[in-house]
Amino acid sequence: MIRGINKQIIEVLDTGNTYYEKAYLIIKPEFCSAERELLEREARKVLKTMDAPSNMKKSQNRLAWTVRLLAAAGTGAGIMSIIFFSIWP
């Protein structure tokens, strides 16, 4: 939901983004006379493309790699134990 618009600032209350609650977009002076609907549509488009802050992405990425590494190690250990116990007399 876009709360309001004046000649130079658009305030977006419902950003549709899990990380950001509210956004203020400052309009360039040459586009102040543009249609309200066009400015709202562009504001929504910009906010949809925004992602998590880079520090949060790094920590999530590390967690994903740690889980993958542990899954690969567990799979390898499982396969080796099957081979070892099938050969053991």
Walkthrough of the structure:
With 89 residues, the chain is an alpha+beta fold. 54% of the residues lie in helices and 13% in strands. The protein is built from two helices and three strands; from the N terminus they run E-E-E-H-H. The chain has helices at residues 36-49, 54-87; strands spanning 2-5, 9-12, 23-26. Strands 1-2-3 form a three-stranded antiparallel beta sheet, covered by helices on one side. A hairpin with a 3-residue loop joins strand 1 and strand 2 (9-12). The protein is rod-shaped and about 85 Å long. The relative contact order is 0.11. The mean pLDDT is 79.
Low-confidence stretches: none
Seen as an oligomer or otherwise, the chain set is single chain
The tally of strands reads 3
Physical arrangement of strands within the biggest beta sheet: 1-2-3
Instruction: Give the H and E element order.
Output: EEEHH
- Biggest sheet layout: 3 strands, antiparallel
What's the total helix number?
A: 2
Terminal CA distance: 71 Å
- Which outline best applies? rod-shaped
Attribute tags:
89 residues, alpha+beta, three-stranded antiparallel β-sheet, 3 strands, rod-shaped
Topology summary:
Blueprint: E1 2-5, E2 9-12, E3 23-26, H1 36-49, H2 54-87
Antiparallel strand pairs: 1-2, 2-3
Q: Can you describe this structure in just a few lines?
A:
This protein has 89 residues and is of the alpha+beta class. 54% of the residues lie in helices and 13% in strands. It is rod-shaped.
